[in-house]
Write a structure and sequence with these properties.
Layout (H helix, E strand, L loop, with lengths): L3 E6 L2 E9 L5 E3 L4 H5 L19 E4 L4 E4 L2 E2 L9 H10 L5 H13 L5 H7 L8 H15 L9 H27 L12 H10 L10 H13 L7 H11 L4 H12 L7 H13 L5 H9 L20 H16 L5 H14 L2 H5 L6 H11 L7 H22 L27
Antiparallel strand pairs: 1-2, 2-3, 4-5, 5-6
Helix pairs in contact: 2-17, 3-6, 5-6, 5-10, 6-7, 6-17, 8-13, 8-16, 8-17, 9-10, 9-17, 10-17, 11-14, 11-16, 13-16
The chain binds carboxymethyl coenzyme *A.
Amino acid sequence: MAQKATLIVDGKQFELSILEGTEGERAIDISRLREETGLITFDPSMANTGVCRSEITFVDGENGILRYRGIPIEEFTERPNFIEVAWLLIFGRLPTRDELTAFSEKLTEHELLHEGIKHQFQHIPVDAPPMAILSATVSSLAYYHHQFLSVEDTESLAEAAARLISKVRTIAAFAYRRSQGMPFIYPDPKLRYCANFLHMMFSIPYRQYVVTPEIEDALNLVFILHADHEQNCSSSVVRAVGSARANLFASCAAGVSALWGPLHGGANVEVMQMLERIHQGGLSPEQCLRDAKDKTNPFRLYGFGHRIYKNYDPRAKILKQMCEKVFAQVKRHDPLLDIARKLEELALADPYFVERRLYPNVDFYSGILLRAMGIPTNMFTVCFAIGRLPGWIAQWKEQHEDPAGRIVRPRQLYVGPVKKHYVPLDER
Ligand code: CMC
């Protein structure tokens, strides 16, 4: 029997349906609430609001569980293949070998940027933030791919997705090369996705950068662990922009902008800066925690806490293990890893963090791993964006195909001045 919730307003009773997800999450359906009662709900920052039905990603924050299309992320760690995961997220099931090969070939076919876009880079200041370049350039893909400004079938969506997923790494690498004043290195069609990105980042003319299998696996894993996280800030933005029937390029560019924020994807940069300050002696781990707890100080322990996880973020657990594995393989030691471990130990024993259930999140260890690959700090959030792109595309597609998907248009509780009259300038 369908379950109902009862709401009593001014002595009048209203029945609201209770919906249930496949993993047992329950939601009160308020979609007709205003129509029936004249009331809206008030939920700042939408912390308790389900905005869609989704089949893409399941997160259980209490128990530290993350699954893509039902598959636990831990199962992608053995032989990580980011492109396979991208296909899974976008198209809803694991690809067959032929489908994966066809998609990989499509990525190779579209890995170059239009020379017009390449010339755009010459006009960008060398010290421009790479996330600004990424957002602007993803948006400008719309200049050159008019045929995908509207995608109404899976075939054209696959074409547009392949262009975006392939070109984003070329854009990212070119942004880095521009900041270094170094020549752009074209993609190498013989290389796989991650190796090709590192080649464009680090090869120089006549000397090809050679990636080791350990580093290639580590980068695949970093991208996979960032690939989707249900209705996070940037994905919600992508859905909201897409709900206006804005094209995929514009919607993903908006996602990049949201991701840039230090409370979201930008946190990986803040973590690294925090660890470096501690390493250089400008801050002790104990002082760092004191600052994070001080409510008069805007500083936070970056890489800690999460809206959904009230337990160890499973992505952070895998990244920490990968850090240890990579450093053992390359026989190198990074003092920042020791500092991160120390901070984690202190925070997990501190009543402030324990009471608020603040644990390491995906951004706490990802930077140390990216640093081990030679990726500079200002490219960390760009790498997060490359990883998150398939998730944005999957969310955009789901929203686009949802028959119940109307334009996103929240309500508000107006608390401004009541009606008053305009006063002409010379009477003020
Ligand atoms: N350091 C110190 N205090 C914290 C932290 C932190 N990292 N995170 C949360 N708190 C406190 C917060 O001040 C609040 O305290 P009180 O109850 O006394 O007011 C309480 O914990 C609850 O925090 P909140 O800000 O209400 O939680 P939220 O769900 O709105 O925000 C968050 C989640 C991720 C923005 C927040 O935990 C944070 O700012 N963390 C640091 C930034 C960060 O690591 N972001 C990456 C998130 S994971 C990847 C991604 O989404 O991109």
